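User: I'm putting together a teaching handout on how sequence relates to shape, and I'd like one worked example. Could you take Amidophosphoribosyltransferase from Filimonas zeae, show the sequence you're using, and then write out its predicted structure as tokens right after it?

Assistant: Happy to. First the sequence, then the structure tokens directly below it.
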Amino acid sequence: MVCAHCFSDLPVTGFLPHAGNPVEKLFYGRVPIAAAGSLYYFTRNSLLQRIIYQLKYRNHPPTGLWLGRLLGQQLKESKRFQHVTVILPVPLHPRKARQRGYNQSLIIAQGIAEVCGWEILDQVLHRTVFTATQTHRNRENRMLNLQQAFTADSNALGHHRHVLLIDDVITTGATLEACALALQQAASISVSIATVGCTPPR
């Protein structure tokens, strides 16, 4: 279990209120994004890495809810996400979802929804290709690995025209880029992005 005091020690990026932050710049010239940002810096062997590991591999969904609430509070305070009406968690492939027992991005989304009041739709995006781990791949190799990995169901979006994509950590941005492209190919919508963690800009 992660104590409340530990969360206060996490390194905050300060990105969410600001346009043109390093997370947004990952998508420049690749896919149109209305707003993007991350709450904390994520580095190897850091406290946040241990917290995310607990969420993903130690069967502890309450950690994800807590992270989601913290992220949700910052999203609510930022005027840049005020037009969002629905949250879309990045999906897991069904095989990985069965192995893990839950989608950590959906748990984080639930924490955000508690704070912001946005609807969650987890049947819009589907991961149809089981890809190998992305951990040690660069952006180009990740995008090759993710080609055609996601599909989007425009009918499941209903009336929503500004979605918020949620994931736990962003490194190169390849996974979120692939999701955004699938969404924008399926429907005329605006896409914003938020994650709990991001790797520091180089």
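A couple of points you could highlight for students: The beta strands are 36-41, 86-89, 119-120, 125-127, 150-152, 162-170, 190-198. The CA atoms of residues 106 and 114 lie 12 Å apart.
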